[in-house]
Design goal:
The protein has 2 domains: 139 residues, NAD(P)-binding Rossmann-like Domain (Rossmann fold); 165 residues, L-2-Hydroxyisocaproate Dehydrogenase, Chain A, domain 2 (Alpha-Beta Complex). The protein is of the alpha/beta class. The protein is built from 9 helices and 14 strands. Helix 4 crosses helix 9 and helix 5 packs across helix 8. Helix 3 links the parallel strand 4 and strand 5. The chain binds adenosine-5-diphosphoribose.
Length: 310
C-alpha cells in the first residue's frame, strides 16, 4: 500500500508541495482547502501530469478532512502569506485560527500522522499545532531551516561558482530576522567558508539569507516564496517516509536542549520513520548562544500571545 500525504492549503506552497511529492512518487496526495473547487481542480491537474512526468500516485482534492484519513504525513500550509512591508509575525492571529482548525481536523482523521508545519509565523504555528494535536514532540516538526540553509547554500554556490551540492550550511534559531547562521560550521566539500570568502562578503551573504523571504515578497508584491519552501517541506517528508535519517535543520520543540524549554526553535534534527529521531546539540560559543537565546526570546513573545487565545 502506498504512503499518504495530506497537504492542507492548496495555494502556492500547498500545490507545489503536492507537485514535488507526486514527482518523487512519495505517496498518494490529498489537497485540502476551504475554497470550493480549488483543491479538486489542482488535484486533477496534477493527476493528469502523471503520465507525462511518469508518476503513478493519485492526487485528489477536498474541502473536508474525511478523505485525508490515515495519512502518514500532514503538511500544513494553509493560511495567509505576507505582503510587502509585512513581517512573518504580522500574520500571527489570522494564521493561528487557520492552523488550529487544520490541526484539529487532521489529528482527528490521522491520529498517527507526523505533522510538518509551513504556515508562518513558523515557530508560533508549530506551537499551535503541537498544543492542539497533543501529539508527542517528535511528530510535530516545523519547516524553516531547510529553506534558510538552502537560500544560504544557493548564494554561496553562486558566489564561488561551485555546485550547490558541495555547500553545507548550519542555521539555528527562529524563522525570522533573528535566525542564527553558523558560518564557522558551514563549508564547501569540507573546506571552511571562512577560508574561501572574506569576512565582509560573508556578512553580506548572511544578511541576504536572513532577509531571503522578504527579498522575494518585495519582487512578487502579492505573496511570498513558494517553490523553495514547498521543496524544503517535501525533502523533510521524503526523509521520514523513506526513513533516510537525514540530518536537517528543523523547528523542534525543545525540552532543555540549548538551555531552551517549552519552545519551538530551529535545531539540527535526524528525520526518520519516527519523525524527529534525534536533536543534535552543538557546542556553541558565548556569542552564538546569546544570538540563539535572542532568537528564542522573539519566538517566546509570539507564543505568549497565542497562549492567551487558547
Ligand atoms: N483551511 C484550509 N485552507 C485554508 C484555510 C483553512 N482554514 N484558510 C486559508 N486556506 C487556504 C487558502 O484558501 C489558500 O488557498 O490556504 C491557501 C494559502 O495559499 P496562498 O494564499 O497561495 O499562500 P501560500 O503562498 O501558499 O502561503 C501559505 O505558507 O510559507 C507560508 O507565509 C506563508 O503562511 C503562509 C503559508
Amino acid at each position: 500500500m502506498r504512503n499518504k500525504i495530506t497537504v492542507v492549503g492548496a495555494g502556492n506552497v500547498g500545490a507545489n508541495c503536492a507537485m514535488w511529492a507526486a514527482g518523487k512518487e512519495l505517496a498518494d496526495v490529498v489537497l485540502v482547502d476551504v475554497v470550493e473547487g480549488v483543491p479538486q481542480g489542482k488535484g486533477l491537474d496534477l493527476l493528469q501530469a502523471g503520465p507525462v512526468v511518469g508518476y503513478d500516485v493519485a492526487v485528489t482534492g477536498a474541502n473536508d478532512y474525511e478523505p485525508t484519513a490515515n495519512s502518514d504525513i500532514v503538511i500544513i500550509t494553509a493560511g495567509f502569506p505576507r505582503k510587502p512591508g509585512m513581517s512573518r509575525d504580522d500574520l500571527l492571529l489570522a494564521n493561528y485560527e487557520v492552523v488550529k482548525t487544520a490541526t484539529e481536523q487532521s489529528a482527528k482523521y490521522s491520529p498517527n500522522a507526523i505533522i510538518i508545519v509551513v504556515t508562518n509565523p513558523l515557530d508560533a504555528m508549530c506551537q499551535t499545532a503541537y498544543m492542539v494535536s497533543k501529539f508527542p514532540r517528535h511528530r510535530v516538526i516545523g519547516m524553516a531551516g531547510v529553506l534558510d540553509t538552502a537560500r544560504f547554500r544557493a548564494f554561496i554556490a553562486r558566489e564561488l561558482k561551485v555546485s550547490v551540492e558541495n555547500v553545507t550550511a548550519v542555521v539555528l534559531g527562529g524563522h525570522g530576522d533573528t535566525m542564527v547562521p553558523l558560518v564557522r560550521l558551514s563549508n564547501v566539500a569540507g573546506i571552511p567558508l571562512t577560508e574561501l570568502i572574506s569576512e565582509e562578503r560573508l556578512k553580506q551573504i548572511v544578511e541576504r539569507t536572513q532577509n531571503g523571504g522578504a527579498e522575494i515578497v518585495k519582487h512578487l508584491k502579492t505573496g511570498s516564496a513558494y517553490y523553495a519552501p514547498s521543496a524544503a517541506a517535501v525533502e523533510m517528508a521524503e526523509s521520514i517516509l523513506k526513513d533516510k535519517k537525514k540530518v536537517l535543520p528543523c523547528a523542534a520543540y525543545l525540552e532543555g536542549e540549548y538551555g531552551i524549554n517549552g519552545l519551538f526553535v530551529g535545531v539540527p534534527c535526524k528525520l526518520g520513520a519516527g519523525g524527529i529521531e534525534k536533536i543534535y546539540e552543538i557546542k556553541l560559543s558565548a556569542e552564538e548562544t546569546a544570538a540563539l537565546h535572542k532568537s528564542a526570546a522573539a519566538v517566546q513573545e509570539l507564543v505568549d500571545v497565542i497562549k492567551k487565545k487558547m
